[in-house]
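> example.struct
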């Protein structure tokens, strides 16, 4: 018996692809929100302290926002069928 009384592997089979995509999108939107808040906090800190280092960390967060946007955009395109197949 696996966790929660299910035979090993049975619980994993019950999770649908749509459910996993939904979870992934929720986590990615949370990451995106966290990075946006981080940029605002770091911009205020950089201006208040008159230092370059917080601004550098803010730029790093900006790059991560770009990456999160791609992660959200590409699976959404694939789900709607507008993705162009490779090859």
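> example.seq
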């Amino acid at each position: 018996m696996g966790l929660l009384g299910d035979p090993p592997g049975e619980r994993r089979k019950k999770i649908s692809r749509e459910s996993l995509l939904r979870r992934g999108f929720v986590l990615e939107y949370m990451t995106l929100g966290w990075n946006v808040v981080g940029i605002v906090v770091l911009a205020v800190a950089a201006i208040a302290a008159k230092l370059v280092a917080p601004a550098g960390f803010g730029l790093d967060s900006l790059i991560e926002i770009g990456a999160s946007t791609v992660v959200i955009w590409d699976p959404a395109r694939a789900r709607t069928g507008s993705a162009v197949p490779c090859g």
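> remarks
The longest helix spans residues 17-49.
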